[in-house]
Amino acid sequence: MESIGFFGVRPLHFIDLAVEVKGPYSDITSGRVTHHIMKAIRVAKFGGVENLKLEENIPIPTPAANEVLIKVLAAGVNPVDTYIRSGTYARVPTLPYTPGQDSAGVVEAVGPGVTTFKKGDRVLTMLTTSGTYAEFTTANVQYVAHLHKSLTYEQGAGLGVPYYTAYKSLYFRAQAKPGETVLVHGASGAVGLAALQIGKAYGLRMIGTAGTKEGLELAKQNGAELVFNHREEGYQDQILKSIPGGVDVVLEMLANVNLQNDLNLVNFRGRIVVVGCRGSIEINPRLSMGKESSIMGIALMTSTPDEWKQMHAALGAGQETGWLLPQVGKTYPLSEAAQAQHDVINNTGTTGNLIIKLD
Question: How far apart are CA 152 and CA 316, in angstroms?
Fold first, then answer.
């Protein structure tokens, strides 16, 4: 049996021309296969960003049953990529591996059983089987969605994990209802901006925090009715003064810093969804007792097939109607993947998605 690694990542193999796939990687004009190798970032050992190495002779992976092969034009860089690379994540891939799950590009080939995508389709991913910091990637169709023509590939690469995480946090975990007030604690980052857009589109009252003037303005532009600088002393009091009694839901991007404060900011039976956390924190559980408030986590990849179906439908509608607009903060060439991972975890004022742009 073939060994399967982290998140279903299989060891890379050359395309086997004997395998029947629709639209193998070929010269478009002649139909002839031109090469079987690609450029990709590879990680041979866990640790710092210096372990991200650009290699130029990596086999192009073959799409298995229910998978598509995608020519990657842009790849998203997310904090979880850095946790995996460091080796401290709950699950780690088999070494060596190619990082990344978010991408946008064009379907180059489809494996057996694929009927929902065809060669030439514009697509995005939020989970792959071979990694996205590469010229090509493979992905199971459950984790692939069509990319609307109105969005760029860079925007598409910032859509996957951030928007699907935000949607699941709001509606499957917090079960937010139209008219409720949601505080996005860290609203200028990728997931935060996605949550603002989604919440506004579905009738929630959205407010947010950020740490810079630019971040606060970006949050307002993307649906935040009120914004607060979480670097200013007493900003929690400002929130409670503006929202007497507290908010219904908090989406928390940095729980190791803010969770204790969040318990004070929610109202009766308020819900706190922990989206991001980079360490431990001591809290007073008594604060949750009188309010009967709840603290819950969210892990996108535990979603059920039915939840994936709902998220694809909702976010596809967002693309069609135009309210879903991923914000690209900065782009990097593939050769600067290490800098991109450094920046995504060490930035001092997040303003959108960090994207690796491939030629």
Answer: 15
Q: Which two tokens stand for residue 9?
A: 């990542």
Per-residue pLDDT of 173-186, as tens digits, reads 999 999 999 999 99
Q: Which of 68, 94, 249 is nearest to 174 (CA)?
A: 249
Position 35 confidence tier, pLDDT thresholds 50, 70, 90: low
Q: 278, 301 in Cβ contact below 8 A? A: no
Among 17-26, 170-179, 243-252, 275-284, the least confident range: 17-26
Alpha helices in 68-212 (DSSP H): 79-86, 153-157, 160-167, 190-201
Q: How confident is the model at residue 349 (pLDDT cuts 50, 70, 90)?
A: low
Measured distance CA(30)–CA(93) in Å, rounded: 38
- What local confidence, expressed as pLDDT, does residue 1 receive? 37
What residues contact 142, with CB distance under 8 A and at least 6 apart? 66, 305, 308
Residues 103/75, Cβ–Cβ less than 8 Å: yes
CA 275 to chain centre: 11
Residue 11 has pLDDT above 80, yes or no: no
CA distance 229 to 352: 17
What span, in angstroms and rounded, lies between the C-alpha atoms of 267 and 114? Answer: 47
pLDDT, averaged across the chain: 90
Residue with tokens 């004997």: 18
**Cα–Cα distance, 69 to 185 (Å, whole number):** 37
Please tell me the total number of residues recorded for the chain in this structure: 359
C-alpha torsion sign, points 221, 223, 226, 229: negative
* Closest-CA residue to 104 (of 129, 126, 84): 126
Residue 348: which pLDDT band, with cuts at 50, 70 and 90? Answer: low
Residue 301, classified by CB atoms within 10 Å of its CB into exposed (0-12), middle (13-18) or buried (19+), is middle
In this structure, are residues 315 and 164 in contact, taking their beta carbons and an 8 Å threshold? yes
Residue 92 CA, chain-centre distance (Å), reads 18
Q: pTM of the prediction? A: 0.88
